[in-house]
């Protein structure tokens, strides 16, 4: 079984600043994948970034980077140069690596970007 | 890029009726689709996994006779909420996976309200 913990129900960040959204995970699987999704108020789930447990380097996708610390079982999302459009719910999830697998989601963090 | 289409986006039905939700992969073949449910201000909970041409696998606590899933083709999965009751009101969202790929693509979700 996998478990995802997101301890920040809400976060505020000023426009153009960087913000870190925390995520810790618990899994007994030897290999796994970690995902971050963005959910705006419209409800759609937008894939942001993926990290495989055996990836040597932290994943980056544009303004998103994943601070993966395997020993601490953490997979924090860093958003650089925040924009007003980044205001949304952010979910951390765990699943399989590179194969179709179900995802286990955390409870989410609501990010508000302010002027 | 790959797109998953979910229809309808919003539906209101009377208690006791059945509602069908469609999830289509538009430009790729989806060997596996996942159905999630999200209550207001909560996380996504996996309901079931459907594989093309075989029976769906339901998560513990999900009534398979109430939530009928059909994955008859590589591009379409349907979720039918049978004899809907007000407690079935929720946000239902599907995701689709390609063969050998992680489920990165979600539909836009369906908001079901049962009156």
Set down the secondary structure blueprint.
The complex is a heterodimer of chains A (about 120) and B (about 120).
Chain A: E1 2-5, E2 10-14, E3 19-21, E4 24-27, E5 33-39, E6 46-52, E7 60-61, E8 64-69, E9 74-79, E10 88-95, E11 104-105, E12 109-114
Parallel strand pairs in A: 2-12
Antiparallel strand pairs in A: 1-4, 3-9, 5-6, 5-10, 7-8, 8-9, 10-11, 10-12
Chain B: E1 4-7, E2 10-13, E3 19-25, E4 32-38, E5 44-51, E6 57-58, E7 67-73, E8 76-81, E9 90-97, E10 105-106, E11 110-114
Parallel strand pairs in B: 2-11
Antiparallel strand pairs in B: 1-3, 3-8, 4-5, 4-9, 5-6, 7-8, 9-10, 9-11
Give your account of this protein's structure.
The complex is a heterodimer of chains A (115) and B (115). Chain A has 115 residues and is an all-beta fold. In chain A, 0% of the residues lie in helices and 52% in strands. Chain A has strands spanning 2-5, 10-14, 19-21, 24-27, 33-39, 46-52, 60-61, 64-69, 74-79, 88-95, 104-105, 109-114. Chain A is globular, with a radius of gyration of 13 Å. The mean pLDDT of chain A is 94. Chain B contains no helices and eleven strands. In chain B, a hairpin with a 5-residue loop joins strand 4 (32-38) and strand 5.
